[in-house]
Design goal:
18 helices, two-stranded antiparallel ribbon, 7 strands, 413 residues, globular, 47% helix, Helicase, Ruva Protein, domain 3, five-stranded antiparallel beta sheet, single chain
Length: 413
């Protein structure tokens, strides 16, 4: 299975180098709820709710017949990664030369269709191919789980049951409308479907029948795949006349506390701070265009100035590492060189338990990192920045073994 499947999530939210935001704020853990009951009784209640929503009894009979929870899905949902994933490892797994070559070939093979979609929706072909490649390796890895069975398992099992119940009802709606058969509705263990790995609610809201056959088919139809991706991005604010961002160099003595998605400045202001293009040339400036600075490997790694399209990528998947990989793969498809070895630093993975310890230590020292949970969200990063500033360290908000050891030493004094 491709590396990207193992290092990102579709729904749950795992920690990626300290830079993953939760993917679905509505999918919070629910320790107690109706999922604790008998599956057959629960399924009968679901059936009645579906009928009340106008889904035909014949569809439910086909979709829910002999349905049983999938133990493998429960195991996946309960599993937790032991270590964070570093930027270098992520990028080396996601952006391989073979993937770049295949992406360029497939763009040429599908150029008339991609350009037609781009003209209608305003999303450039190389970006559409990049999403396609990273989501399913160009349709090769779409997941082998029954979406209905997987979602029923997650809706019944008790964690995040309200969210997954809503996704299951949307999946049943998709079946009832005839877009795909039950047997062909396959996807990931968490219910992400087809060549775009859309969850059912995303399909309902954004999928497009571009080939005009009456079905919105993101499993088999490339016109529907490309148009659905473009429609999603376009409706979420994509600018077809803009790129996603660029790698930049920072001047000596740069104030790393400015490296945050919440700090947006006009490009001319970033240039005045001393930012330059990755090759050392002047930073391209576009009137009225703003950017934010991202340090995916901390102050020792590369810096990226990202634009509004980057935020749209984050709507699709809220991992900063994923968003950078989409942008960089699109650049590579369009002829850009790979990241240099210097831009892929050796990084030490930090365990989730160490992140929890870091959060507890920050709290104990008066820097509010929130409830220790092993996930480095905005609150934890701001607490870490404040601590780093107080200690005279580069305030990049990036957790490392070194800074955790320093926190331990401070707490023991």
């Amino acid at each position: 299975m491709k590396v990207i499947d193992g290092i990102r999530r579709t729904l749950g939210g795992v920690l990626l180098g300290g830079l993953l935001l939760p993917l679905a704020a509505c999918a919070q853990s629910q320790p107690d709820g109706p999922a604790a009951g008998d599956f057959d009784s629960w399924l009968a209640g679901l059936r009645q709710e579906a009928i009340g929503r106008g889904i035909r009894a014949s569809t439910l009979e086909t979709a829910l017949a002999r349905l049983q929870p999938l133990e493998a899905v429960i195991e996946q949902d309960r599993s937790q990664r032991e270590f964070t994933l570093t930027f270098t490892r992520y990028m080396r797994g996601a952006i391989t030369e073979s993937r770049v070559e295949k992406a360029r070939r497939l763009l040429q093979e599908n150029r008339p269709l991609l350009e037609k979609v781009a003209a209608e929706y305003g999303v450039q072909p190389h970006f559409l191919v990049s999403f396609w490649g990273l989501e399913s390796n160009f349709g090769e890895h779409t997941g082998g789980y029954s979406v209905v069975a997987a979602l029923a398992t997650l809706a019944h099992e008790g964690r995040r049951h309200d969210f997954f119940r809503a996704q299951l009802l949307d999946a049943l709606k998709i079946l009832d409308e005839g877009h795909i058969s039950v047997g062909e509705m396959t996807g990931s263990w968490a219910g992400a479907m087809g060549q775009l790995q859309f969850i059912p609610s995303t399909f309902v809201n954004f999928a497009v029948d571009y080939d005009g056959d009456g079905q919105r088919d993101i499993w088999h139809s490339l016109p529907d795949v490309f148009a659905s991706a473009a429609n999603y991005l376009s409706q979420e604010g994509w600018r077809g006349d803009r790129t996603w961002g660029r790698q930049v160099t920072l001047p000596p003595g740069f104030d790393y506390s400015l490296a945050s998605l919440s700090v947006k400045k006009p490009l001319e202001e970033w240039a005045a701070y001393g930012l330059r293009d990755a090759d050392g040339g002047p930073l391209p400036v576009v009137d009225g265009m703003e950017g934010a600075l991202v340090l995916p490997a901390g102050h020792r790694g590369p810096a990226f100035l990202v634009y509004e399209n980057f935020n749209t990528i984050l709507v699709w998947n809220r991992s900063i590492l994923y968003a950078i990989s989409v942008g960089h793969l699109a650049d590579r498809i369009d002829g850009a060189p790979p990241l240099s070895a210097a831009a892929l630093p050796d990084e030490e993975a930090v365990s989730l338990k160490a992140i929890e310890e870091m959060q507890a230590l920050l709290n104990a020292l008066g820097f509010d990192a929130g409830e220790p949970d092993g996930l480095v969200g905005p609150k934890t990063r701001e607490a870490l920045r404040a601590y780093q500033t107080a200690e005279g360290l580069p305030a990049d908000g990036y957790p490392t073994a070194e800074v955790i050891a320093r926190l331990r030493a401070g707490a023991s004094r």
